Amino acid sequence: MQEAVPAGHGAMTAILGMTINEVENEIGLLPKQEVCEIANDNSNGQVVVSGTKTIIETLNNNLKRKKKRGIILPVSAPFHSSLMKKASENMKNKIENTDFLKPNPSIISNVTAKGEDDVNKIKSLLVDQITSRVRWRESVDFMIKKRVTDFLEIGPGKVLSGLVKKINKDVKITNINSVDDINK
């Protein structure tokens, strides 16, 4: 995926303390010649933006003047943006030629923030995810509306658990970071 955008050409910034609508308004004030798109709607108060390095720097400077906080992320590419189109095209054939089983329960797509169990649609959504906004906040809200009350994060760290807690403090979250966690 890093090959889709030349090194140093793209960037991402995490914007804290602003809603998605406020971030969209800030993006609307930027010059249209360069790509600047919301990459992740993580929670109320945390939105990640991808784009060309120069426009991301401009956005951060604009935010700083308004006493808002943007943190440049140490990433190798501007993920979840239209700048990743080449990576999406490269992955499309691989994903389409992979055998998938029908999921049970349904997969919640971060592209649509809805449940999906059609294998061909899931494949298409996986390709789209490379260039599309991650609708994490909306996906968690969707699951909660479907009466999901317990969330399990598997893997190092607790980033997703923290985001879920920001979205809804009433759900139960369990983390599995190690074999010891599994044994507990």
Shape: globular
User: Into which percent range does the helicity of residues fall?
Assistant: 25-40%
- Number of E-state strands: 8
Termini separation = 37 Å
Strand content: 15-25%
Secondary-structure class? alpha+beta
CATH architecture of one domain: 2-Layer Sandwich
Q: Which CATH class of one domain?
A: Alpha Beta
Q: Strand count, sense and closure of the main sheet?
A: 4 strands, antiparallel
What's the average pLDDT? 94
Oligomeric status: single chain
The CATH homologous superfamily of one domain is termed Malonyl-CoA ACP transacylase, ACP-binding
Question: Strands across the major sheet, in which order?
Answer: 2-3-1-4
Q: Tell me the CATH topology of one domain.
A: Alpha-Beta Plaits
Radius of gyration: 18 Å
User: Which series of helices and strands comes N to C?
Assistant: EHEEHEHEEHHEHEH
- In DSSP terms, counting alpha (H) and pi (I) runs of 4 or more, how many helices? 7
Keywords for this entry:
184 residues; alpha+beta; Alpha-Beta Plaits; four-stranded antiparallel β-sheet; 8 strands
Characterise the protein shown here.
With 184 residues, the protein is α+β, with helices and mostly antiparallel strands. Among the domains are: 81 residues, Malonyl-CoA ACP transacylase, ACP-binding (Alpha-Beta Plaits, 2-Layer Sandwich); 36 residues, no CATH class. It is 38% helix and 23% strand. It is built from seven helices and eight strands; from the N terminus they run E-H-E-E-H-E-H-E-E-H-H-E-H-E-H. Helix 3 packs antiparallel against helix 4. The protein starts with 9 loop residues before the first strand and ends with a helix. The mean pLDDT is 94.
